[in-house]
Structures are given as C-alpha cells and as structure tokens.
Amino acid sequence: MLKRRPEFYWKLTKKVTWWHRRTIFITTIASVLTFMILELTGVIWHNDWFAADYEVKGLDISHHQGTIDWKTVQEKNEFAFIYMKATEGHDFIDLRFKTNWEEAQSQGFRVGAYHFFSMRSPGKVQANNFIQTVPVKLEALPPIIDIEIHLKHDPEKVRQELQNLADELEKRYKERPIFYVTYDTYEQYIKGYFKDYDLWIRDIFKHPADGKY
C-alpha cells in the first residue's frame, strides 16, 4: 500500500489556501472597481439607498447637471423640492439658473436658490449679486449660503462677511438663510456662532450625527 508523506498534504493545503486568498482578494478588488464605475457613470448612486427612508426628498443642482428634462423628473414623482445654484462671489451667475428656476416651477416643484460664498469680495457685494439674480417669491424655500471655502482664512473675518451677507439676504427675502457647510468649514468658521441659523451638513456617505450640530 502506497503511503504519502504528511508533508505532501501540508504543501497541498498551503497551496490551496494561498490560491483561495488570492481569489478572494482579486474578487474583492474587482467588485469595488465595478461599483465605483457604476456609480461614476450614474448607473447606481449610493445616496438613493440612504434617502429611501425619507418621505420628503429634493434635488441639489447647478449648471454642472446640464439641460434637465423637468417633465421627466416630475413624472418620476420622487422629489418635492429643488435647490439650485444661482450665484457665486460678487459677479458669477449660474448659466442654467433662470431656466431651471422657471421650468422646475412649471412642473410643480417648490424651489430655492443658493449662493456659493467666497472670500474674494465683501459679503454685501455678494448679497447684491444674489438679490439681482433671484426673484422674491413667497412660496420659495429660504436662501442658502454654501460655505465650502479654504480653511486658511481668518475665522473672524469670514464670520463678519458671512453675517453681512446673511443680513442682506434676510432683509430682502424675509427669511433667515440656511448655512450649507462641510464638517471642516463648520468646525473652522461656524461652530459656536450663528446659533439662530439652520444648518445643512454635507455628508454623502452617512446621516450627520443628531444633536451634534
């Protein structure tokens, strides 16, 4: 009777284990890359999963989305409101704002506009850019100030210009603006200040911690 040495089984097991681990590693990498490609091309979008439990959903858009077929968006019956970029700094106006503003309303959406804040010009001058661009509409959502600036600025100066901008917008639209912030800009410029303002925390991966902001 032929007897095989124990070393043979050990070597075979080691080889199979190594091959198994290699297969798992390659499969995992391939799955991750496939998911990334599908998300980047818009076939899937993880935020759709996170938003599934919310009864009221909306869209955040700008000229980067190109021409939008608002009738098709309305027919999907998924979204109740639209926030759209209107202005940035003291002189930039989103090329699609006027069209998006009018066409979204024509399809029954409640609309709101946002301003991309900059430290290259005074807050009051930026407010004037927004006010000249965005009509006063009673049914519109409150204005939003998008705060995604670099973290190198003097916090006191940033807060002063933000306050000037917010005051002018509130005076014009009779509603206090909402601050749209990242975790970093919140910590650097907003935390401990502007306590009477509502915040929109940007997080595309999870729900911001309740009670922390």
TrEMBL record:
GO terms for molecular function: lysozyme activity. GO terms for biological process: carbohydrate catabolic process; cell wall macromolecule catabolic process; peptidoglycan catabolic process. The chain crosses the membrane at residues 24-45. SMART domains: Glyco_25 (SM00641). The keyword Membrane applies. The keyword Membrane applies. InterPro entries: GH (IPR017853), Glyco_hydro_25 (IPR002053), Glyco_hydro_fam25_subgr (IPR018077). Keywords: Glycosidase, Hydrolase, Membrane, Transmembrane, Transmembrane helix. Belongs to the glycosyl hydrolase 25 family. This is Glycoside hydrolase. It comes from Thermoactinomyces mirandus.
